[in-house]
Protein: Protein kinase domain-containing protein
Organism: Riccia sorocarpa
Amino acid sequence: MIRCSSFTRDKIATLNRTHRCPVDRVGRELDVTMSGPGEPVTRVAKTWVRNGILKEKLSKSTIYLCTSLENNQRFISKTIDAHELEPRTMIEMERRLYQKYKPIESPYFPKYLGFNLELKCPETDGTDVCNLLLEWVPRGSLKIFLRRQKHVLDEKIITVFCRDILRGLAYLHSQGKVHGDIKCSNILVGDKNLKICDLGKGKVQEDGELYLQPKRGQNPFRKRVYTTGSDGYMAPEVEDEIAQGPKADIYALGCTLVEMATGFPPQKVPRIYTSEDPKDNDPSNGIPKSTLHIQTFFSPEFHDFLDACLAAHPDCRLSAESALQHPWFHKFPLEYPIKTKQSEASE
């Protein structure tokens, strides 16, 4: 008897009815690789093993580094107890963003390799688990890269990194999806470009908003929607639980840009207040207008782009597509600064 939630049982039944190849069925198998649009689905491996834990108990799930026993291909498994898988679980939301309506098939995201139910998983004391299988990017996150660089990045490198993130967001937004948690720790450093990961807080816009009950003491007629994100990276409308659309990702990108430029998230960067006259305060909240204290050696184009991303109102922010046309991206030659293993070996 499989111990799992009714949601999990329904999902596995659907997989078994609508599977594209036999490995989509229940079992410990790496199921599919999507090589590209229109290409046939191919089986990668029949069996695989877990090598060790990369992150433990991350929002009910554990991330394992795994290896195929057939071809030694490495990948990651985001594993959750089957009875804990629900529609709003981060693993299920990530699977939906990868697979719903239009599958994500972009070099700016880790490849989706499959989703399955594993019976009596030995690494979880014999419990039944669900596995979300994704490409492994061994260089780690942009946050780790920043730490290795002692939190100091040249503006040219920041420009290339920001371009890659924008390309990924433009692709995601074109599919009617929102990431919901852009920050340095959710960006992976690949061999040829950055990759946006951890889509578990994302949204599919066609699903509509999830409306919440008003908070105690609030106007009972005020709209309140379910929003996601990390403190310090959330747009004003997200913090206020008003809305969360593609422009919220652009605001989070601006916060990530601050982190790349200073080594710290925006809430830890000192502010410079532009005026002490109360008449100059922000009319929407009465707070004195201020700007982040970022080193003066960054170009005017950088500051202009940052201001466009961090605009308080979403309508005043750039879209991902229009942001890619900003003059800042034409100021430097945009060559990806990370050396591949082959180039490192040849030197």
Q: What stands out?
A: The domain at 142-330 is CATH 1.10.510.10 (Transferase(Phosphotransferase); domain 1).
